[in-house]
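As agreed, record copied across for absentees:
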Amino acid sequence: GKRAEGEIHGSGSSTHKYMAFIAVPVAAAGLAAVTTPLLPAGATAAIERGQIHVEPGFLPPPLVRSLREDAMSLFEAGLFSPDGLTNTAVGRSQQGFDRRDRQTFRGDGWSSATGDQAARLQFAARMRSLREELAEGLGRPTLASEGERRHEMTYNWYEAGAKLGRHLDEHHEETKGTKGWLRPSRRSVTWLVYLNEQWEAAEGGALRTFPRPQPSSQAVGSDAGNLQVGWLDASRPVFLETREGGLSTLYCRAGGGGGGGRREALSAAAFEVPRQPVDFGAFLAAEYGSRFEQISTSRLDPRFATGTPAEFTEFGELHHVDVLPAAGTLVLFDSVSLPHLVREVTSTRPRVAATGWFHEDSLAVPLFPAGS
């Protein structure tokens, strides 16, 4: 068997690789906990319904400057490495990542003494307060949990000509083959904070996101821990459930609201999820086939191409929202349901950001038959 082991919202306007994990107590940064909300009313509702939230001026300019200078110093010290999107159809030695790809800080961790530790800890304290706010606002309580390898925080660096293909930041464990069901937590909310002073649209490097043309009728990302893999009728999330024995089913929730309606089975019968690339449409009952849209496919995500991926494409024909990577701007969205890419940097200076993921608990690993 395949297993080796058991609408844009804003105020004022890879192989699944894990980055530097962090659990920094607020006291470690010498700051008091933030008690006033960091996000405006409606921000969490936008994220919950599959849209992005953009918050200009989230970081004060002095902290933006300190973080940018820290990232540049760490880059000059050789502590970044190329980190593109892994094509799962070819071996590691054939990936060919270079300076035309995203580069990521790979030092001793966000809280290490290397570079400007004080600035990074100050930033981490603010992001912890944001995470706690999201845990309550999104109804995802385990976002607030701490742990040594729980949440991810790093710097990203794009030089002239660098770009990143369309992708999702998290996938259902059952679609990961032997790499699935190994971690106790998963990426839940993606965040980015840009560090580029006076960045102009002509310099390229915009974040291109692909939210639904209209907000989802229900909460996106997961349902009772089962992750989303598609859409029914354009705005209803479709979830994949894997049960004991290794068989899976596709379903959605009837009605609108919070998605608490009755379950509506969509698959013709229980099935075993094949290796990537997966076509979930093949398992749907006939009446749902034309109404289903899969989020991640071999055409839309270069990681799941069956051979050498096609040339980089920006998918301009699809509904999208572009975000200029301007200094101090925060971007938030659901890690499971919202695809995105980074457009090519045309500037002569690097595009720099602090990026990461807030994690929530994963479902417990299902019990699979012996020898599966």
